[in-house]
Design a protein that fits this description.
About 25% of the residues lie in helices and about 20% in strands. It contains eleven helices and 19 strands. The longest helix is centred in the C-terminal third of the chain and has 20 residues. Bound molecules: flavin-adenine dinucleotide.
Length: about 425
């Protein structure tokens, strides 16, 4: 069998929006809304049926970091969740590292906002390839039930989390640590529900019998109405490799009943979570659609944010977002609760993310936002949280608007003083 074959096909061009945002996670949603509010014709494509990314399909149900002053788009999401009693009361980051919300309600809030803003939304639509000429993206190929089609935007923002627009477009990307390229580990999140009876379910006989000695890292967090979220660490797989990612999903799901059995047996005794939740009367309810990917491809941008920038709380003239979450760099080599850095070195002061970290090197009409930003692995472990991802998205959206409005030839031509001014006017606290 020949290892390669050529494939050529004429495809229909379905739109030529000013801006195409690929990926409807928190970063992509925020980018799309921010640009639309600046008067741009925006199309947003998402491979799943719902907006919210890992929060929607990965089961992540808490905003880490500071939830105030993150810019008007994020502030509005929070305000809407508050009105629907779908988020816990505000406390500053210094007092509480994560603010839980109901991710089912989040999906509805985001969709409603996107539709009302007038964003051209295409769900069930996956970006499959990119046509680039002289560092400029000429077309983005997408696939949905209508087949393969092309979109020809003026500017693209890659908010896929995996940096796949940049990667397929031929822009340099990197994954994992510098030596072994091992990405931060994945985790699967599933949910259990209180059915108020002991021995709530029968479990398969051939499950792994975990004990406190051999169980992988498990975290529990209580949700309203008798639900509990369960997250467990999955190691040994590569999220940038299709086959390995597929195996990770299958393996992780094969462990769910084993973890349930373990929790029913041990959680109430060992107090696995700070709340010492007993799940003796809880049964397995459902698992997230997608395994949680903490890191896959990161772009190599005009600036690579490094962990030392975070440690000194570095501020940049082109700072467009503020990160403050600790270095949540779980060790991919062990399934235990261990970090790559020592526990004393996890905290960082508030730091800036420079606009240049959103620009793939030499790109003429491409920006990124969210967890595929240009950063080293440790810097990413902090900057990837949803508050900061949303700030990056808003900045990329406003920057795209400036590129389009002023007919700029490169994202580097954006006047960063003006961009920062716009972001501050729109509610971002950039100190
Ligand atoms: C296990 C785990 C727990 C976490 N816990 C927290 C937490 O408690 N609090 C917190 O703030 N953060 C947490 N994070 C981090 C946070 O969830 C993510 O870093 C954040 O959601 C990143 O947002 P994003 O928009 O950049 O990417 P994503 O949320 O990954 O969104 C990317 C979107 O792009 C879409 N997409 C990808 N490829 C394509 C394509 N080819 N075509 C079309 N669409 C595509 C995806 O479907 C997705 O909707 C956690 C992460 C993990 C993995």
């Amino acid at each position: 069998m020949r290892p390669y074959m050529e494939y050529t096909k004429e495809v229909r061009v379905i739109d030529n929006p000013d801006l195409l945002v690929v990926g409807g996670g928190i970063a992509g949603f925020s980018a799309a809304v921010a640009a639309k509010r600046a008067g741009v014709d925006v199309m947003l494509i998402e491979q799943y049926s719902v907006l919210g990314g890992l929060a929607a399909v990965g089961g992540v149900g808490a905003f880490c970091g500071e939830t105030k002053g993150q810019g008007e788009v994020f502030d509005e999401i929070v305000w809407k969740l508050e009105r629907l009693d779908a988020i816990s009361p505000y406390e500053p980051y210094e007092k509480r590292e994560a603010r839980p919300f109901d991710h089912e309600v989040l999906k509805l809030v985001l969709q409603d906002m996107a539709v009302k803003e007038g964003i051209k939304l295409l769900v069930h639509t996956r970006m499959v390839d990119v046509v680039t000429e002289n560092q400029k993206i000429e077309a983005v190929l997408v696939h949905n039930v209508s087949g393969v089609q092309a979109i020809k935007p003026r500017v693209v923002i890659d908010c896929t989390g995996d940096g796949v627009v940049a990667r397929y477009g031929g822009f340099p990307c990197v994954s994992g640590d510098p030596l072994f390229h091992k990405a931060l580990p994945m985790s699967l999140i599933f949910f259990m529900r209180d059915v108020r009876r002991e021995r709530p379910n029968s479990l398969p006989e051939d499950i792994t019998k975990y004990s406190p000695e051999n169980v992988p890292m498990v975290s529990l967090w209580p949700e309203p109405d008798g639900k509990v979220g369960v997250k467990f660490k999955v190691i040994g797989f590569d999220p940038t490799d299709g086959l390995s990612l597929s195996r990770a999903e299958v393996f992780a799901r094969s462990q769910i009943f084993s973890i349930v059995g373990y929790l029913q047996e041990f959680a109430h005794r060992t107090g696995l979570s700070e709340d010492k939740i007993s799940v003796k009367t809880y049964k397995y309810d459902y698992a997230s659609m997608q395994i949680g990917i903490r890191e896959s491809w990161r772009i190599i941008g005009e600036y690579v944010l490094v962990v030392d920038d975070l440690r000194i709380g570095r501020k940049f003239d082109d700072g467009i977002a503020v990160g403050r979450f600790y270095l949540d760099a779980l060790d991919p080599n062990t399934d235990k609760r261990e970090h790559i850095v020592s526990s004393e070195a996890l905290e960082v002061p508030p730091y800036h993310i420079p606009y240049r970290s959103l620009i793939p090197k030499d790109a003429k009409n491409l920006l990124v936002a969210g967890r595929c930003l240009s950063a080293d692995q440790l810097a990413l472990s902090s900057a990837r949280v949803m508050t900061t991802a949303s700030m990056m998205g808003q900045a990329a959206g406003k920057a795209a608007a400036l590129i389009i409005e002023n007919h700029l030839d490169s994202p580097l031509d954006v006047d960063v003083t003006e961009l920062r001014k716009i972001l501050i006017e729109h509610g971002a606290i950039l100190e």
